Amino acid sequence: MNRSEFHCRCCGACCRIKDGIVRVSDAEISRIAAYLGMDEGEFIANETELAPDRGGLVLKSRADGACVYLDENNLCRLNPVKPDKCRSFPFAWTNPDSTAICPELAGEGWRGKVFRQD
Predict the structure, then answer these.
(1) What global pTM score does this model have?
(2) Sheet harboring 48-50: ordered strands across?
(3) Phi, psi of 81 (to 5 degrees)
């Protein structure tokens, strides 16, 4: 399957995965901080936390596990600068339970398919 065959339903389910983490690189921190009108230090201090494996920084989540940047309409407030992990789902990566979480992937024809970005 390729990107043109996947139609995101904008349900926000992939942004509400309990214990899901979104690692952010230095470049992503710079890009997101600039988009939010913050300096990088302020963004790091207020919007990220140390990853569970202590291998970098991750975006903070709400108490219910949802991404703090998911708005009331299930849209990403960071869409123009969203992290690569978010932008590349489900083409560069999936979780074992992705077909249970994402209603588009749960549909007939997607199970066991290999996804490509083209």
Answers:
(1) 0.81
(2) 23-24, 57-59, 48-50
(3) -130, 20
